[in-house]
Design a protein that fits this description.
This protein is of the alpha+beta class. The two termini are 40 Å apart. It binds ligand L6N33NVT and fe (ii) ion (FE2). InterPro entries: Dimeric_a/b-barrel, Dyp_perox_C, Dyp_perox_N, Dyp_peroxidase, EfeB/EfeN, TAT_signal.
Length: 430
């Protein structure tokens, strides 16, 4: 049986318990084609072109049911785009594209229409026209595709008058060592799935569809824990080994929507139901970090490494007590501990939804791992989320000694779309 996780789901990221719902009607699903591909054989596939051969053959039989990981679907359509409150997936691709010279608003609208149709089909486990076959054996595996617009987009297509204030360039931070080639971009795609082939399949399909309209500016690939890898659903860990994500705003918080999403009557109108994504590629100095004693590592964060419990006491989910003092008079959570400096109470209430992927791009010339966090932070306004918090971290965070911010981008991610519409339609046709 297939399972559906609504894209505006309200369960915390740590609880991956999809709601059983029927899969949307599918004229031809990837799995029904699986039987066909086996029957046709390689010669038939080559003769007719892969997609043609798959589509021409009748279905032999239904294959065995998928596991819950493969069968879980996240609906593409909705008031908000999927991939923001969706539980973290095991595989992620972040891609920024620049419009090709001469690509006008009409061409971009056609691209967004194509992309939305393909994303809708792929997330429902259907085979798009002219398919590559990369994901033929698999179900949707919680695939999500999220689309965004960068600041430079608006000038390129004559829409400067619709540029949101919230897309003002992020300020410089003293510790930034940013690579402009891997920063910013006109268009942004975030692809997530619990299967690596399903994620790559979507990336390839969307990149092919960009054709002459847009070219990839940068791409970053990330990962998280695979569902089922732990005995029970648990908060993810990052590559420093810390439990990471505990004190994220919860979808059940009264002010969650207000903090993370642009309201239905918000400005600009085309961003209703949308959100702003800050993307930072943050390399971790893992060799230095791994040399620290466990006690010092925990002091730097303010939480226990084993279970994520705050050093002020309790379990992972116990609220952090920033006033707690040890028997020797020292603060239980140090003055420069990451959770103290980043906490909303230390930043006039500023908060964001952190939804990162880890990355590992091999090793640098000095032998150190080129690895860290693809930090993706979601908020209704970056000036009330990422910016004030990063300003504070930049000045006084004990963790920053072990980090290098190497790339940065900010994207306006519009609300979702209804069947028959496409993401960004209100901007491009409004
Ligand atoms: C500007 C915002 C933030 C950046 C950049 C950032 C980088 C970063 N963080 C970790 C590891 C942890 N962060 C944790 C908590 C935490 N981090 C931020 C913000 C940024 N982090 C916030 C707002 C919070 C929550 C603070 C609170 O209210 O308690 C934690 C603790 C567990 C948790 O709550 O998630 C860890 C661990 C790394 C490794 C990193 C850069 C690579
Ligand atoms: Fe953090």
């Amino acid at each position: 049986m297939s399972k559906t996780t609504p894209n505006t789901q309200r369960t915390p990221d740590t609880q991956r318990t999809p709601n059983p719902q029927p899969e949307p009607p599918s004229p031809i699903s990837r799995r029904r084609l699986l039987g066909t591909a086996g029957a046709v054989g390689a010669a038939g596939l080559v003769a007719g072109g892969a997609a043609g051969a798959y589509a021409a053959e009748s279905v032999r039989s239904d294959p065995d049911p998928l596991s819950s990981v493969g069968s879980t679907t996240v609906p593409f359509h909705g008031e908000r785009q999927a991939g923001i409150t969706t539980p973290l997936q095991a595989h992620g691709h972040l891609i920024a594209l620049d419009l090709a010279p001469g690509a006008d608003r009409k061409a971009v609208a056609a691209l967004l229409r194509r992309w939305s149709k393909t994303a809708e089909e792929l997330t429902a486990g259907k085979v798009p026209a002219d398919d590559t076959g990369i994901a033929l054996d698999a179900g949707p595996a919680s695939l999500t595709v999220t689309f965004g617009f960068g600041r430079t987009f608006f000038g390129r297509v004559g829409l400067k008058d619709r540029l949101p204030e919230e897309l003002a360039p992020l300020p410089d931070f003293s510790a930034d060592v940013l690579d402009p080639k891997r920063s910013n971009g006109d268009l942004w795609l975030q692809i997530g799935a619990d299967d690596g082939l399903v994620a790559f399949h979507a990336l390839r399909a969307l990149q092919r569809e960009a054709r002459e309209v847009a070219r990839v500016r940068w791409q970053m690939n990330g990962f998280n824990r695979t569902p089922g890898a732990t005995s029970r659903p648990m908060t993810a860990r990052n590559l420093m080994g810390q439990v990471d994500g505990t004190n994220n705003p919860k979808t059940t918080d009264d002010d969650f929507d207000q903090r993370i999403f642009v309201p239905a009557k918000g400005k600009p109108d085309w961003m209703a139901g949308g959100s702003y994504a800050v993307v930072r590629r943050i390399r971790m100095l893992l060799d230095s970090w791994d040399h620290l004693s466990l006690e010092r590592q925990e002091r730097v964060i303010g939480r226990r490494k084993s279970d994520g419990a705050p050093l002020s006491g309790g379990t992972e989910t116990t609220p952090v007590d920033l006033t707690k003092v040890n028997a020797d008079g020292s603060l239980a959570i140090a003055g420069d501990a990451h959770v103290r400096v980043a906490a909303p109470v230390s930043n006039q209430g500023a908060a964001m939804l952190r939804r990162p992927f880890s990355y590992h791009d091999g090793f640098r010339e000095d032998g150190a791992p080129d690895a860290g966090l693809l930090f993706v932070a979601w908020q209704a306004d970056p000036m009330k989320g990422f910016v004030p918090v990063q300003r504070k971290l930049d000045r006084g965070d004990g963790l920053s000694r072990f980090l290098r911010h190497e790339a940065s981008a900010l994207f306006a991610v519009p609300g979702g779309c209804a069947p028959g519409e496409y993401v960004g339609q209100a901007l491009l046709e409004g």
